[in-house]
Design brief:
The chain is built from 12 helices and 11 strands. The chain is of the alpha+beta class.
Length: 411
């Protein structure tokens, strides 16, 4: 699903492009896929997306590479191909996916809803009003923009057609539920930094004092066996530690209003004018539950991602402890040497909050489904594209060289 989001987001970025000569009659179509001609506007757009893919890939390979210089980008090699060839092949892949999605969307008997059509119309109208001149200079018509917008909606709908709960692939509510429970942790943690009020590292004696503070807190928390009382105690400790930090800091931490239970509250004051010209004031206080909790997502195990690129929250040490060692509703103390801090951590039962009024909404379920089956859907797309009959218009491919496009914005 990431490709669809990237393709949609690229429309806005395309407004930064400079001029490209208008399409000639013999280059109005860049290629034909299964008898369907792909107009130059679509190909130019997907070339732009592919160019950015190349820049991202090269940056990942070498952070010191000046990817703002097109000549530098052009001189590189990606996956054994020169950059131009890599970008062109990537653009052709995007074109193939565009055709495959449209074809299978129709074959599945799907149609865009009236609401989706209205959203597309509004998006195209708004976008074209601002960017028409620049897009037309680059050979991209309003019709092409509409095709791109429609494609992103169709791709999303087609994905859900296969993988929504009780969809074509037979995904069950239990399967989605279990995946979420397995790959997400509901935790409350307090970080005790081993620094003074100015941010300097503490002396060994100072570190021992913080360690003793955390151990005392741990001892107090370990005596509690009720989740609600445990959460209340952790909130209390958080407030005490915040007060401690404030007391040693040169800059006070912004105060947060709390109610008697230690929950964050927001206060809204509404003044109403009565018929006689008098006014009455109503004050509404809203409690925000779980104010100090976090949902930690299990780090990816995708073998394609390098270890150094994996994002851990709040750190690798804490992430690993939560998913490998932490027991439900039991506090633990962890030292994170890399971040120079102690953590007091409690992992709660995430299923306690998995209802439609809390974290287990339809949107959340769909997000989990997207995470679960994006790779499977990409495999479908790859298979559909592999079976396509592709005929290139070599003159058009040569003409719409991505390195001849001016990607700088006009001042």
């Amino acid at each position: 699903m990431a490709n669809f989001k990237k393709i949609a987001a690229g429309a806005a970025a395309l407004a930064m492009m400079g001029s490209l000569a208008a399409c000639g009659s013999n280059t109005a179509y860049a290629l034909t896929i299964d008898g369907e001609q792909i107009n130059a506007g679509l190909y130019i757009y997907y070339s732009y997306i592919a160019y950015n893919d190349a820049v991202t890939t090269l940056s990942d390979q070498n952070e010191e590479l000046d990817v703002t210089d097109k000549e530098v980008v052009k001189d590189q090699v990606i996956d054994g191909k020169d950059t131009l060839k890599w970008i062109q092949d990537k653009a052709l892949t995007y074109c193939g996916e565009h055709v495959a999605v449209n074809k299978d969307f129709e074959a599945a008997g799907l149609t865009l809803s009236d609401e989706e059509k209205d959203e597309i119309n509004a998006s195209v109208e708004s976008f074209w009003e601002t960017n028409a001149e620049k897009f037309e200079e680059n050979g991209i018509s309003e019709a092409s923009v509409r095709q791109i917008m429609e494609y992103t909606y169709k791709a999303s709908d087609l994905f859900m057609h296969y993988y929504e709960i009780d969809g074509v692939e037979g995904v069950t509510e239990e399967e989605v539920h279990d995946y979420y429970v397995e790959n997400n942790a509901r935790v409350q943690y307090i970080r005790f930094d081993l620094v003074d009020g100015k941010g300097a590292n503490l002396s060994e004696a100072g570190k021992d004092d913080i360690k003793s503070m955390v151990e005392d807190y741990l001892d107090a928390v370990e005596k509690i066996n009720s989740e609600d009382k445990l959460a209340d105690k952790m909130d209390e400790i958080q407030e005490e530690y915040n007060a401690y930090v404030t007391s040693i800091s040169e800059e006070a931490v912004a105060a947060t209003a709390t109610d008697a239970e230690g929950n964050v509250t927001t206060t809204t004051t509404t003044t109403t004018t009565l018929a006689e010209g008098e006014t009455t004031t109503t004050t509404t206080t809203t409690t925000i539950p779980y104010k100090n909790e976090s949902i930690i997502v299990r780090a990816t195990t995708n073998e394609k991602i390098k270890e150094e690129d994996i994002k851990y929250s709040p750190s690798k040490v804490i992430h690993d402890h939560v998913f490998n060692d932490a027991e439900t509703n039991k506090a633990s103390m962890v030292f994170d040497e890399e971040n120079n801090a102690y953590y007091l951590i409690v992992r709660y039962d995430i299923e306690e909050r998995m209802n439609e009024d809390d974290i287990w909404t339809d949107d959340q379920k769909n997000a989990v489904i997207s995470e679960m089956f994006s790779d499977a859907f990409q495999e479908k797309l790859d298979a559909w594209c592999d079976a396509q009959n592709v005929e290139l218009n070599k003159a058009a491919i040569k003409r719409y060289d991505p390195f001849k496009i001016d990607f700088t914005s006009e001042e």
